[in-house]
Write a structure and sequence with these properties.
The protein is of the alpha+beta class and 389 residues long. It contains twelve helices and 17 strands. The protein is globular, with a radius of gyration of 20 Å.
Length: 389
């Protein structure tokens, strides 16, 4: 569903759009000109299809699993795109942490493993608490914070259950200063020309406190803090040899304002971040993503400040049950609510939210001030509820 805006935009720009994945009923296919039942993680399958169809460009929009495939195809066919090796490093957490360490970036103590036995025999290298994560998932899926050795086995089992490659990473937890930095960026010919950051919102009620629920704009970074983050991202983009590309960005500052790059996803952000950024800055990153994939000029894109106060927030249920309806406070609906992207249908079973696997979609809304936004997001249950039976 999150790919629909990119498909619609490409059609609006006059392009013939071909979609592929392994689920014929996915909603985006109804908006494309052609659909093929080939998994987006099947490198050779998508390459063969792309050759046969003689495509002009390929985009993996808001999808980490599809990003290496898009890079692989573009590299093999000589189309605009990023180096496959670099994209693979960015989408597999153990490879990414190794790359950061080898190239002198700030990064926590980390190591990748395939089995619990490998990890527990090496556990003395880490200081608790630690984070256990699948190397190839996003959206907090399979991520567990562990405070002592006895909790490692269950965390590893959960992480492996979400890993396509059956690998996981252990890394030390970093205490952050203020909000985690979240947003999207864009480079043109390897130069980071645009970044738009928000403040990551996490759960403190009813689920794991490190599970992301959304973001709000504008960023609360100082000018100097933003410069540090931008500079570190540019250094990484240069080291990876990235070209013209959209990025989904996750960064934290430690207590000394030292930036740690947690994620540099080689694709647009999910949870409708590009749409939120367009509200906040007027910049249409989907348009530039499509242009970049076709080798068209993106030179007019530049840093643009945020005006107004905006948020994207997960639609989630606090309990498992049968979905009945999504209810909004009337004043919120009239004065704040912008867009509702709900994937749940009446009568479907929904699950209590633990990670984005259980997400029922996203709402976008606005506020008059940052303080009003903080009040709304801290008390979101007063403004919308998922009604289940």
């Amino acid at each position: 569903m999150q790919q629909i805006p990119a498909i619609k935009q490409a059609k609006k720009m006059g392009h013939y759009v071909i979609t592929c994945d392994y689920l014929p009923d996915n909603p985006g296919h109804q908006y494309s000109d052609e659909f093929y039942n080939v998994s987006t993680t099947d490198l050779e399958g998508v390459l063969a299809l792309a050759k046969r169809l003689k495509i002009d460009g390929i985009v993996a929009y808001a999808s980490d699993p599809a990003a290496p495939t898009a890079a692989y195809v573009s590299e093999k066919l000589g189309l605009p795109g990023n180096p496959y090796k670099s994209v693979k490093s960015l989408t597999e957490k153990d490879l990414f942490r190794e790359f950061l360490k080898e190239n002198g970036f700030n990064t926590p103590e980390a190591c990748g493993y395939c089995t619990y036995e490998e990890a527990i025999s090496d556990i003395q290298r880490f200081h608790f608490p630690i984070m256990v994560k699948p190397v190839d998932s996003s959206g907090s899926k399979g991520v567990v914070k562990v405070y002592e050795k006895d909790g490692v086995k269950a965390a590893v089992e959960e992480a492996l259950s979400y890993s396509r490659g059956k690998r996981f990473i252990i890394e030390e937890f970093i205490e952050k200063k203020g909000y985690q930095i979240s947003g999207d960026g864009f480079s043109v010919d390897g130069k980071l020309v645009f970044t738009s950051y928000g403040n990551e919102l996490y759960s403190g009620k009813g689920t794991r406190e490190y599970v992301a629920l959304g973001e709000f704009w504008p960023s609360l970074l100082t000018v100097e803090q933003k410069r540090k983050v931008d500079d570190e991202l540019q250094r990484l983009i240069t080291a990876l040899g990235m070209k013209t590309s959209a990025y989904n960005i996750e960064v934290i500052l430690d207590k000394d304002d030292v930036p740690y790059i947690l994620e540099l996803g080689p694709r647009n952000g999910g949870s409708y971040i590009p749409q939120l950024i367009q509200y906040a800055t007027g910049v249409d990153l989907i348009d530039y993503t499509i242009k970049g994939a076709l080798g068209e000029s993106c030179e007019e894109l530049k840093m643009t400040p945020t005006t107004g106060v905006w948020s994207n927030y997960m639609i989630l249920s606090k309990q498992t049950g049968i979905f009945k309806e999504l209810h909004f406070d009337e004043n919120f609906k009239k004065s704040n609510l912008l867009d509702v992207y709900c994937t749940a249908n009446t009568g479907e079973k929904v699950f209590a939210y633990q990670n984005t696997t259980h997400s029922l979609g996203t709402i976008l809304f606005k506020a008059n001030t940052v303080q009003e936004m903080i009040e709304i997001t801290d008390n979101i249950e007063n403004y919308y509820q998922v009604i289940v039976e």
